[in-house]
């Protein structure tokens, strides 16, 4: 799962959702493309390759701010209903980010990790001053939206 590397920035967030993995896992794999993605999120994913999500699928990630940074990522690991890993191909980051799903007796834990080096002098200044806080708040918003969606979906399934 989480291995310390030589990279400068290690970022970790998680949410525990009291809902079965069978409801949560398929949604996590759609990270960035899902219907539950928060509308107010400043992070946008645009798929650059066609077909099913698989290793090799590429996305452009963009921060929705004036002059916001953008970069390309590629899915480098995909374990269905368990884990998705994306490696940064260009832009301000060198490294990767990944999301891991872990079934528990009373629900599902979802962990988000980012392990990277910041590239470029301007980015090294802006990351701690502006972008890290924005990144952290976006990840928290995304995980909360996932939790809310999964709880609502479980309730709907029980009512059927």
Describe the fold and architecture.
The protein is α+β, with helices and mostly antiparallel strands and 160 residues long. The protein has one domain: START domain (Alpha-D-Glucose-1,6-Bisphosphate, Chain A, domain 4, 2-Layer Sandwich), CATH 3.30.530. Helices cover 30% and strands 38% of the residues. The chain contains two helices and seven strands; from the N terminus they run βαββββββα. The protein has helices spanning 21-29, 121-159; strands spanning 9-17, 43-47, 58-63, 70-79, 83-88, 93-104, 107-118. The protein has a seven-stranded antiparallel β-sheet with strand order 1-7-6-5-4-3-2, with helices on one face. Strand 3 and strand 4 (70-79) form a beta hairpin. The radius of gyration is 16 Å and the shape is globular. The termini are far apart. 21% of the residues are buried.
Largest sheet: 7 strands, antiparallel
Global morphology? globular
CATH superfamily: START domain
CATH class reads Alpha Beta
Look at the helices and sheets and give the structural class: alpha+beta
CATH architecture level-2 label = 2-Layer Sandwich
Summarize the amount of helix as a percent range: 25-40%
Could you spell the SSE succession in H and E letters?
EHEEEEEEH
Residue share in β-strands: 35-45%
Structurally, the number of domains stands at 1
In whole angstroms, how far apart are the ends?
37 Å
Biggest sheet: strands side by side, in what order? Answer: 1-7-6-5-4-3-2
Q: Provide a count of the helices.
A: 2
Radius of gyration: 16 Å
Q: Mean pLDDT, nearest integer?
A: 92
Strand runs, count: 7
Stretches where pLDDT is under 50 for at least 5 consecutive residues are none
- What's the CATH topology name? Alpha-D-Glucose-1,6-Bisphosphate, Chain A, domain 4
């Amino acid at each position: 799962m989480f291995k310390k590397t030589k990279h400068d920035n290690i970022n970790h967030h998680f949410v525990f959702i009291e809902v079965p993995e069978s409801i949560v896992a398929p949604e996590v794999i759609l990270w960035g493309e899902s219907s539950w993605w928060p509308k107010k999120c400043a992070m946008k994913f645009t798929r650059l390759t066609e077909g099913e999500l698989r290793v090799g699928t590429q996305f452009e990630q963009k921060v929705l701010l004036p002059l916001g940074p953008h970069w390309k990522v590629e899915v480098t690991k995909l374990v269905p209903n368990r884990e998705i890993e994306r490696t940064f191909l260009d832009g301000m980051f060198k490294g990767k980010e990944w999301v891991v799903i872990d079934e528990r007796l009373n629900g599902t834990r979802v962990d988000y990790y980012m392990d990277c080096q910041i590239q470029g002098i301007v980015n090294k200044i802006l990351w701690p001053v502006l972008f890290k806080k924005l990144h952290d708040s976006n990840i928290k918003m995304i995980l909360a939206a996932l939790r809310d969606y999964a709880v609502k979906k479980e309730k709907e399934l029980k009512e059927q």
